Amino acid sequence: MDIRPLTTLETPTEPPNRVEVQAARFSGGGITIVELTPTGTLPAATIRAATSGLRRTHTQVIGWATPRDTCTLPILGWARGMVHTRPHLVKTRMAQIINQLAVTRPRRAISVVRDLARYYMEAGRSDFLPAYLDQILRIARHHNLLLDPERRLAMFREFAAWNALSIDHVRAEAAAAAQHFTPEQAFDHHVRLIALASRSGITMQPDLVGQARQLGATAGFDTDQVDATVVTVVFDTTGFRAAPETFFAMVGRSLRALVRSRRDYQEKLLDVRPEFMTLDRYHDLLDGTEAWDELAKNKWEFAAWLKDLIFDIIVDHPIPFPPRKWLIDAIHQVRRAWGCLDVPDKKLRYCPWTLLTHSSLSAE
Fold it and tell me: Which of 2, 78, 261, 300 has its C-alpha lying 20 to 30 A from 211's C-alpha?
């Protein structure tokens, strides 16, 4: 088979904004095919043909096309079909193609990686996804292809929905934002990524607040403004409720001010105590607030709330559980409305008089 250039392109000159196209002949096992492919993706086409037992035997430039016309790699169809049964094979084969593309067409390489990630998600193999997010960030960093904040956040949002976002991604992104965005953009980007991470179940840590303070200071915000912004976007999210006490200590002043100024925050804290927030901090946040005072007026509701709180304390701590004067006073207040509290897993029963007479609960 002879491959001849089109008659109108026998002495071509490359037009602007076009991609060179070649006709490539592949043969093997009695089969010969000719494929039109951009010169930049010819190595990828060769690898793809090799997976079918074909080798490249001839190439010839035939003209140019727009980048949009050549943006789809047929091998993605193969990858999508194989990822359910041969995920590691797909990863290995596609790694070669992605590496080739990253050299000449890094934006297209990123697009291919995102498509691959979607295929793995469809196949229920989310364990592959963090590595693909890392690869996207690595290619973008190497070729200085940082997207604008909105598009970059959209990419993180997609991977977060697949549970592929980690706290290390958030930490690294703060440094990237500081380098490439304006100070205001960098701070806003970091705060929005923190919110996304916390909603996705990533536990809030003090160093994330530290990064926000650094970015905020560059943008002209003081510490209280930064902390209030962070607390507002993560309050009552999964990552907030699982945060360590060191996180609450770091943002304590802003958290207290927000809780005391917002009834909805008070209600949410009454509903769920963050797992690692100290009992003293929890009481300090709520004591004297509108929601607390209203709850304490109804002895039956207050008794039910105290039983839930003490149940959590007993489950988390062996006997004796931590004594607190305010807790003793509250039990005194509602003891006739309480009844007893059973803890099945520990085969224990607590009644008000048991708690009040226990030596560990002497008032402090």
Answer: 261
Contact 33, 54 (CB under 8 A): yes
CA 200 – CA 174 distance, rounded (Å):
18
**Which has the minimum average pLDDT: 160-164, 229-233, 255-259, 312-316?**
312-316
Whether residue 122 is predicted with pLDDT greater than 50 in this model: the reply is yes
Residue at 159: amino acid letter = F
Beta strands of 66-112 (E only): which ranges?
none
270 — pLDDT class (breaks 50, 70, 90) = very high
Long-range contacts of 77-80 (CB under 8 A, 24+ apart): 78/48, 78/51, 79/116, 79/119, 80/119, 80/122
State yes or no: pLDDT of 80 exceeds 70.
yes
Share of the chain above pLDDT 90, in %: 46
pTM, to two decimals: 0.73
Residue 286 class from Cβ within 10 Å (0-12 exposed, 13-18 middle, 19+ buried)? buried
C-alpha 279/C-alpha 324 separation (Å) is: 9
CB contact at 8 A, 171 and 210: no
The Cα 145–Cα 181 span in angstroms is 13
For residue 264, which amino acid is it?
D
8 Å CB contact between 263 and 291: yes
